[in-house]
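2024-03-11 09:14:02 DEBUG pipeline.ingest accepted 1 chain
2024-03-11 09:14:02 DEBUG pipeline.ingest length=202
2024-03-11 09:14:03 DEBUG pipeline.predict start
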Amino acid sequence: MNPPKKTHGSLMFLVVLSGISLLSAIILAARQVDSQKTILSLQKTVITLNNKINIHQKAMAKTDFYRFQENIYRLQTPEFAKITNSVFNLSRKHGFNPYLVMAVIFVESRFNRRAVSRAGAYGLMQVNYSVWKDELSIDRKRLTQVDYNIELGLTILKNYLLETGGDIIKALILYNNGYKNANNSYHEKVIATNFYKHAKIG
């Protein structure tokens, strides 16, 4: 015996409705899973960004401190600051480690740009005027100027370094003594400075 058509239609409607509800539940569950994955991914991204922000803030704080330190140093010792600035720039120009150049200047003049030796050497790098005046066309009036004196000194040292095939020790000995081969403890004085040690040469 066949059920009434109305009852059959109601059953079909309920089946379809149940199917739609089940499908909706499945889709909702899938979306919830996707949402959870998305949330976890976003949380990881936020953590990563926070770490980067913290690192950046620490770097900025350190930069601010170094800038403050540099400004105080320049205000307190403006002439020495000028010397270090010149040494850094001219060392790069001539291909020298700036700490090495600071070591040479320390031994030569103790950073006194007006220093004059009995042998007639002038300025920070103790450039011997009588020896180099013609070869380097030296302007004697400028010999105690920071940039000019360091430029001359590094030109001389570079010539000796090329002549010795890149041997900095031999170049230092020649820089101090020329070809007299006397007082060879000069290079040891340079090597003994904290500047040279910091350079980590050799």
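2024-03-11 09:14:41 DEBUG pipeline.report The mean pLDDT is 85.
2024-03-11 09:14:41 DEBUG pipeline.predict end
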